[in-house]
Please model this.
Amino acid sequence: MSNTAATTKRNKKQALGPYGRVGQAVGELDDRLGVAKGGRVFLDKIFPDHWSFMLGEISLYSFVVLMATGVFLSLYFIPSTQQVIYHGSYKPLDGQWVSEAYKSTVSISFDVRGGLLIRQMHHWAADIFTGSIIVHMARIFFTGAFRKPRELNWIIGTTMLILAILEGFIGYSLPDDLISGTGLRIGYSIAESIPFVGSYLVTFLWGGQFPGTGIIIPRFFIIHVLIIPLVLIGLLSAHLGLLVRQKHTQFKGEGRTENNVVGSPMFPTFMAKTTGFLFMVTAATAILGAFTQINPIWQFGSYDASKISYAVQPDWYMGWLDGALRIMPSWELAFWGHTVPLEVFLPAVIFPGIVFQIAIMWPLIERRFTGDIAMHNLLDRPRDRPKRTAFGVAFFAMLFTLFAASSTDVLANFFHISLNVVLWFFRFAFFIVPIISGLVAYQLCREMQGVHDIGQRKRALIVHFSPEGEYSTVPSATRPDDERHELDPEPVPVRIDIEPLSNGGIRQPESSPTGARQVNR
Amino acid sequence: MSSRFLLPAGLLGVATLASLAMIFPGATASASGHADANQVSITPSHVTTRACGTVSVKGVTNAVPNAGNPFLSNSKTCLNGHLISYGNTAITYSNPPQSFISAGRQLFAQTCSSCHGNDANGVGPDGQATIGPNLQGVGAATVDFWVSTGRMPATDVKAVEAERKPSRLTPVQALELAAWVNSLDPSVPAVPNPHLRGADQSVGQDLFSLNCAACHTIEGSGDALAFGTNAPSLQDRQVTAQQVAEAVRTGPANMPRFSGNLSDAQVADITAYVTEKLQHPQNPGGVALGGVGPVAEGFVALLIGVGGLALICFWIGERSPKDDDDDEHTEGGDDPDPAKAQEYAQSGQEHA
Amino acid sequence: MSDADHQPSRTRVPMPVAALSDPHMGDAAKNPERTEQIIAVILFLAIVFFGVAGAAYWQNWSDWIFGGALGIGLFALGFGLTAWGKYLMPQGPFVEERHTLASTPEERDVMSAALVERSAVVVKRRRVLGGLFAAGAGVFGIVAAFPLIRSLGPVPGTSLETTGWRKGMVLVDSSGRPVRKETLVVGGIMTVYPKDTVNTETGFISDQGQAVDQTVLIRVSDQPFTTEPGRENWTPAGYVAYSKVCTHLGCPVGLYEQQLELLVCPCHQSMFNVRNGAVPQFGPAPRPLPQMYLGFNDDGYLIAMAPYDQAIGPGFWERNS
Model:
């Protein structure tokens, strides 16, 4: 009995071919879409193994988390500034006039099961999203990965950073709590400061003088949940599409040339690692969301334009703008019945405009200086390009100084010095810190260039005293960790020993990834 | 293998600890617990009450209901022409008993007179103005606030503002001083005792965010203000309900004095919100990160979030490949060799 | 069924690197069974923690248990899979040749030729047609922008220069109580609104009252004083009132330091001296806060004697200062 059953099973298996159901499915798909050839090349796609190439994946996966948690939140959030009286779980607000938006956000936090966790995951993921974009961008910048042919991808990336910051600010404003409402009020005033069009811009957007006709929260909502995410998804697809088309850059090293990519294949190694990493990024937001509280809006109360808290600060990625506004002197231009509020317009419109312009145009700016029009697939070590590295360090130092300037009050309180002193300090630091850090970075790069085996662990020198009375030194043995046994890179191997079936249903694969050339042509 | 992680992991750990230390600077200091002893309620003797005589009310020029003064108060208790207590269901204001006066005089001579003058009038024995201001006519609540919060006796008389510190004097001694100073020129407000049971935290939250949060921050953490002044933390659980009400009613140092614009009931509401919610905040979302707000959150997101994930990347990925061509190092400079650049460019063109 | 029956299906495909002897297997070769066991335990842990998360949700335990279990479960799942990839799958270096993106010069020429030449067939005046088409598209763009932009909201007009304050309006606090001479003592501050913006019954303050009309009322002294020449009797009984909207970015200037007699903006720390007409002493604010002309009416209530004499709040292009 069991014997015959086994025999039929075996027969069935044989009918399926050597690759069983998977082979069957590939066959069915290939009949209709012709995926086998290209798909095979895709499975062989090589991803460089260097850890810094995964930084961008943090952004990608936190974006996935943002979308998932955002869909959940949008099911409960009411984008309306209609004033209602709060009666809910959080007693210190009971009986107060609050907006619908605020009420629904408090209700997500207290009354929807799991709602607070999702809300906090969403906010943490947003902070990680912008943060990892910047870290990823720094890696690209300092290693020169933006050079030809990847200028377009750099521009797409920086555009996504700007959109991410904008998206974060708008999302932060949606709950209509006291802190974010103050931020929105500041945003209104910044837009208002633009010469010629400012006042029109704000009355159009807000539907009138601040706080407008209650239209801004619904408008921000649709921008936050539909328009910017849609643009981001489009740009993200282009970003990844270009990455596949142009292939990865890589660091210099054994067997690595301008004309190849060395690393691990898409399937199975990279796919396992990156899928695992998706779960770990999600886990990071979940753990932060579970154990660390973020933006406890119930403690702030609903927005009321005449209420204010001291030490209000925007989310960290807007901090540098806040710092710029704080340290700017009060230079207002008034002439012929017109006013140009330079104390706002310069630090909050012109300055970020310049910063983002430099960021976006950097590949072109650098090319203008170096005249380098070559194709680059091998990365620079930061120390080998001291001028670029120094500029980047100075740029980040400037932004960090401004970020620190956004907490002048906290610093004054912490160090017990006068707020006024701290402010003057930052007015000078804004100019001095970037110059000094740039010069230090430049010098460090120069020094590091001259040192052999930099980055390797130092090895002790053993001094020998020969019978002839001669001293000589020999480096001691390397530690086990320092030894690098790298294999010679070779094409991803393929199985080639299948017996062709009698019906000839299976083509005999024989290729190696060099086949990619023919396919991608 | 594992030792490769030591440096980045160590750096991350140090940075995390440093940021935590910034976020919770008072973590160790605030652990010293409650100070219920500060709360001394005075039970006025109702034995013989007579109509109150004239009460000097410096700083209050007319009958304003609910402003911390006895006018129009619905329960006034007097003894021998001295105002003992007054108030309503929200706050009872009481002057310290007269028996405290003699002890207060001695204590004042020992601890206060060097700065405020022997008669607490801001005039020294030489007829010159003393360092400290005139205290006559400030009311018992003012004296009790400054002494019970440890701001007086001051340790550094030249400081811009006296900082809160553990009080050198007991709560009873504070009341003794208040009794003597008030006996020199009887005034109001007397020491308030807010009744928090009927207070409405919601009204308190509303009024706190309108009137108090501008200096003390919405979470009550306090911060540095102009020219070296600062708003003290209200999250500190040493801050008693009595002290909150005293501060609101007397306006110590740079704090504005709230009188007729906040009724006693409203002050009790604010006091209830401060002592019951700000000092015991509801943090269902986890660690509150010190109430510093988005900057602390940013640090956590960057260091623990992005930093931790980068460390995981560091584990998943490989470290840099060994350079096969060491001569590249010495090349230096930002301008690539033009000949080489040309070669690359051509390789890009001609690789077909 | 015996094990032998399953044997054929378990025959591994002899991919060269799938063998442990292959150098690409690297770390896995050291102790594959143990690695596999550890990963199995980790993945099992993930299942356990997801179970805990489910129970936490079902029983409505606190969010940190639910989220923590979910997070740890997800981490274990991800960690297990990644470890599987890192330790039990063939690692690099493998190499892939980079194909050249650029086409041959001939192919480029063919493309360019198609672009340039095809559109020029038959047509004599390509420029005119092209120009007309571009003009048409441009006009469409401008016309389409009207509903897209102009419909969003009203033009500002003079709305940014006016507030709700009128001559004779009574000042009330956030609960609708009017202000008498003795309401504040010296060193006191309160936020006031025009009487008609506050609903005394419900405690509701209109948006306009909150955002535009909000005014700080401070009692600086017992006696009237002069903040600036020309404002001699604007401070009856030592009361002075300024617009609460900061001239820098519009935050409410609610921070008053009574000994320094300074109003400080809580957002960017601009400092205004209330005794001298709120002229900025420090910080980024460019202009003094507009001062309100105060007086008492016949009932003894504090009133506005005139609307603000200038636009309140931050600067904008049309502001005439």
Observations:
- DSSP finds eleven helices and six strands in chain B.
